[in-house]
Structure formats: C-alpha cells, structure tokens
Amino acid sequence: MPTGNVDLHIHSTASDGTLTPAEIVARAQQQNLNAIALTDHDTVGGIDEFLAAASSTNLTAIPGVEISSLFSGREIHILGFFIDHHSPELLAFLDRIRDGRNARNDEMLRRLRSLGYDISLEEVKARCGGDSIGRPHLAAILIEKGYFKDSKQAFERCLKRGAPGFCPRKLPHPEEALRQIHGAGGIAVWAHPVYRNKFARSHVRGIIRKIKPFGLDGVEAYYPGYTPAQHQMLLELAEMFDLQVSGGTDFHGDNIPGLELGTGYGDFAVPEECFVRLKRYHDVLRNQPVNISQGE
Ligand code: AMP
Ligand code: MN
Ligand code: MN
Ligand code: MN
Fold first, then answer.
1. Whose Cα sits closest to atom 20 in ligand 1?
2. pLDDT of 158-208, one tens digit each?
C-alpha cells in the first residue's frame, strides 16, 4: 500500500462541490492520498461514479454522506461513513431532506427576487450537477452576475442564517440522522464541531454529552479551519467520551477558493492511521447486532 494521507470529508458536483466524483478520484491520486470519503450534502447521488472511478486505482474509496440536522436551534452536520448507499430507507430519508431543501430554495429565490436580485430556479438547476441544490449554487450565480465579489460576501450580506435572503429549511433531529446512518450499516461522526470559530469548549462538550447517547461514533478532529488549540480540544473530548477521531478538508472545489483536497490551505494532513482506526471500529461494530430501533 502506498504511503500517504487521507481525506474523509469531500463534496462533489452531486452537491455543492465543483469537481465530479471521477475528477475527485483523479485529484486524490495527484495528491497522493490513500483513502478518501465522498460526503455530499444530503445525497448519495455521486457514490456509484465515485466507486467506479476508484476501482481502477489503488485508492480506498469510502461511500459517505453529510446530513444536516437541527439541535437546540443550531445546525449540526453528521457524516456517515461506510454506508450502504443503496439502502431504500436511507434513500427515502435523503429524499425527504432534499424535499425540504427544494422548498427552502424556492422561498429563498422568491426573497432574493423581491430584494431586486435577478435569479431564477432554471439558472440554479442549470449550474447544479446533482440533486442536492444548496446556497453555494445561489451564491455562484449572484457572484457571476456581479452582485457580490465572493461567496463570503454573498453569505454575509444575503444568504447566511438571519440575512435578508435566508429562509430556514426542515431539518431532522440528530437522533434521526444517526439512526439512518446506522440503519444503512455506517458509522456517524459529528462534522466540524467547531465551525467558523463559533463553538466554545463548553458548548461542544455539552452537545457531545447530549448526542452521544443517540449513537454518535466519532468527531471530526482534523479540519482545516481549526486552530491548534481547537484540534487538541477535539482530540481530548474524543478521548474523554470514548469517540473515534475523523478528519477531512471539506473540499468543495472552486466553491471554496484556496482549499485543496488532502492539504486544505497548505499544511493540513489527516494521517492514514485515522482511517485505519475508523475502518477497524466499523468492522467490529458491523459484526455485532446493530443496536438501534427501526421504523418511524
Ligand atoms: P445549504 O446546505 O444549502 O444550507 O448551504 C450550506 C453550505 O453553504 C455549506 O455546506 C457551505 O458549503 C456553504 N456555507 C455556509 N456558510 C457559509 C459562509 N458563511 N460562507 C461561505 N459558504 C458558506
Ligand atoms: Mn457545502
Ligand atoms: Mn458541514
Ligand atoms: Mn461538508
């Protein structure tokens, strides 16, 4: 096996990234990565292409997903790894989430137009490669039309929670997201527990304490935006709560300029050991009866 690092948090054109799943596999080879997980928002629509492209390489490709959930008024993103991406229950669940996304998008487009922005659903659909349309697609059109200089500005002024163009969407409780990931044979990791510098230690610890009983398996302790102290904090919390450790760049192609697959903003790396442990943990878990309640 070649030596290299891993990247377990990646978006493709199936959601709000700009590289296709096959292009991501090619980029991962250029970056000398050993293992990569495709984790598109609320869809597994890119996984078949991803696995097919990786099958002729020596890369390990992990089918994944990133599910947005709502907990105590905040968005909590949950990564699922090693999922059966053909599981009918999982597919139905993701369909329902995307219905909520689409209704939200319709309302946001209405608001944007009433604010004077020229933007239509047809334009959004035309630039979206998959079935999970999100705010970055809206941002890209608004930037292209000259309303904003970059996505940071588009989000700040218009698209972020609380901004004039924003509309909330229906999100599942994390318990449901965890149940669905486990039901599809996967393991569940809390993505970027510190996001855009927002969450303090007491807050992160409080959320872990509350969602661990629902079956949380791990936390994303390696993430390009973290300070060394935040990275250390997450390693400590993982140890304290007996959680697995994961890591990835949250690569979005050109939608997050300067952020590269595997290396983040330049000096970032997730050690292969991280993936090896997660895989071992998953394999042990899968050989045990899955202790979850089914149905809704
Ligand atoms: P959505 O899933 O449609 O609600 O859009 C959320 C996505 O927008 C995230 O996954 C990020 O890719 C992106 N995003 C969220 N907040 C910001 C921000 N402040 N600036 C730039 N991109 C953002
Ligand atoms: Mn995104
Ligand atoms: Mn996320
Ligand atoms: Mn992500």
1. 152
2. 999 999 999 999 999 999 999 999 999 999 999 999 987 667 889 999 999
249 alpha carbon to ligand 4 midpoint, in Å?
8
Q: pLDDT tens for residues 224-239? A: 989 999 999 999 999 9
| Residues at CB less than 6 angstroms from ligand 1 | 16, 41, 68, 134-136, 151-152, 155, 160, 252
Question: Which ligand 1 atom lies nearest to the CA of residue 134?
Answer: 3
Which tens digits make up the pLDDT trace of 20-74? 999 999 999 999 999 999 999 999 999 999 999 999 999 999 999 999 999 998 8
Point out the ligand nearest to the CA of residue 132.
1
Domain locations in the chain as residue ranges:
5-94+187-286
CA pair distance 215, 175, nearest whole angstrom: 8
Tokens 């309640």 found at: 293
The CATH fold of domain 5-94+187-286 = TIM Barrel (3.20.20)
Cα 22 to Cα 48, 63, 84: the distances in Å are 10, 13, 19
Question: First-to-last CA distance in the chain?
Answer: 43
- CA-proximal residue: ligand 1, atom 23 (nearest): 155
